[in-house]
Design goal:
Elements: E1 4-9, E2 13-16, E3 19-22, E4 26-29, H1 33-44, E5 49-52, E6 69-72, H2 74-82, H3 86-93, E7 94-97, E8 99-103, E9 110-114, E10 124-128, H4 129-142, E11 146-148, E12 151-153
Parallel strand pairs: 1-12, 4-5, 5-11
Antiparallel strand pairs: 1-2, 2-3, 6-10, 7-10, 8-9
Helix pairs in contact: 1-4
Length: 159
């Protein structure tokens, strides 16, 4: 819904553009990885969900690598699998990582992790932000999430 605004109307309804929802609708503010995954999980749990995002979702293009990436652990991949998007993410471009070194730039020490020391093939996967958002948004449509983009939201009692 182009240019919509999500506003509170009294205590019992929410208005998003010309659409009015009962207060039992869950409004997810933000369509990034966390907001889209949350909206998808709530919709798959049977709730009516409206997702409000001020900008169009980025489209992932295989020929244009996104430098904003996530190091996903196996439990993250499991959650994405339960949401029905991990197969599409891993088939597109999820690269395993087998070791990780973490340190404090101020000099406080260092931690190292090796998949082989945990009898694992990998510690997790490196996945691009735009790929995750793209696949999550594709799943939102089939989950009957009401998308309001571009749109801004407001909540009762908030400025």
């Amino acid at each position: 819904m182009s240019g919509a605004t999500l506003d509170s109307v009294g205590d019992t309804t929410v208005q998003a553009g010309s659409t009015q929802y009962a207060s039992s609708v869950v409004a997810a503010a933000g369509g990034g990885v966390v907001g889209a995954a949350c909206a998808l999980a709530l919709a798959r749990a049977g709730l009516e969900v409206a997702l409000v995002e001020p900008r169009p979702a980025p489209r992932w293009l295989a020929g244009q690598p996104d430098l904003r990436v996530y190091a996903l652990a196996p439990d993250n991949a499991e959650l994405l699998d339960r949401l029905g998007v991990w197969p599409q993410v891993s088939a597109a471009r999820a690269k395993p990582y087998r070791c990780m070194r973490v340190w404090d730039a101020a000099g406080g020490g260092e931690l190292s992790f090796e998949a082989s020391s945990m009898a694992r093939g990998e510690l997790g996967w490196i996945v691009e932000n735009d790929l995750l958002v793209d696949r999550l948004w594709a799943a939102l449509a089939s989950a009957d999430v009401h998308l309001h983009c571009p749109a801004r939201g407001s909540a009762p009692g908030r400025v």
